[in-house]
Amino acid sequence: MIDASGPRVLKGHGTENDFVVLPDPDGTVWPESRLDPALVRRLCDRREGLGADGVLRVVPSACVPDAAEVLGDALDECAWFMDHRNADGSHAEMCGNGIRLYLHVLLAEGLLDAQTARAGVLVGTRGGPRRVGLTTQDPAMPGYWVDMGPARPLGRGEARLGGVSYPGTGVSMGNPHLVCLTDAVLEGLDLTTAPAVDPVLFPDGVNVELVNVLSAEEGPAGTTAHVRLRVSERGVGETRSCGTGACAAAWAALDAGGRSAGAVTVDVPGGRLSVEVSPQTTVLTGPAVVVSSGTLTPSWLGWSRG
Ligand SMILES: N[C@@H](CCC[C@H](N)C(=O)O)C(=O)O
Fold this sequence. Notes:
Diaminopimelate Epimerase, Chain A, domain 1; 2 domains; 17-stranded mixed sheet; 17 strands; binds ligand LBFN2T5F; DAP_epimerase_AS; amino-acid biosynthesis; cytoplasm; diaminopimelate epimerase activity
């Protein structure tokens, strides 16, 4: 018999940006000393482990040692904290697909009720507090919105890929992005190695989006635009989607046309996201899916039975 006494685990995704989710409702299951970078890498390994682009630890903010530092006065308003790790074990400040899945898991695990989720809850992240809410409870494809805060320009840069330079705009969505608007055929790009960027502009690394702007037009309800992208994520490599990257790309596509607001449809390899940009904030909407739930095997973890 398989030993099922190990810690609970879920596997899920948002537009195919996939995560191992570790519920830690009282902060005792996954202290930092246990969830070290080596274990994160093993969990995310697609052969040795469960396989994922990252890990989300679902934990009360009060149980996270650095939460007070990153949340400041908002600490008391953020009951829950999204403790995010990239597949290489590094921390990231923010994750737009992950935070939708995070709310989905709070609901699925009975840690939050649907009425509260519909109204929206503040979740702590290392990029600051973010409000997340439930839009539709369709069991086939539940939808969530996230108030991601305003995009912040970081200056011009370039990504070098396959001997070609792609000029881009640095954008912070809490985490750093370099958005390169291009007419290149995205399917033709080789993203098996990360694009080279200027380390002086991005000392902590950067997520790089290669973006085709398909349309941008004025209508009775304001500006609408449609973009598609591929992304090479810091700490992961190419992923099927990036929520913060979709927001950065939407902002950059509008900004390139001299616009500061609009509704942008963002097609990613793993599906479709919607982004509402305004000078005040950025709202990301998209699905979240739980694929499976169960337990991690203690012997795989190297935990002896006590
Ligand atoms: N896929 C995420 C972003 C995850 C963090 C990123 N790799 C970083 O290091 O900043 C998203 O959906 O936003």
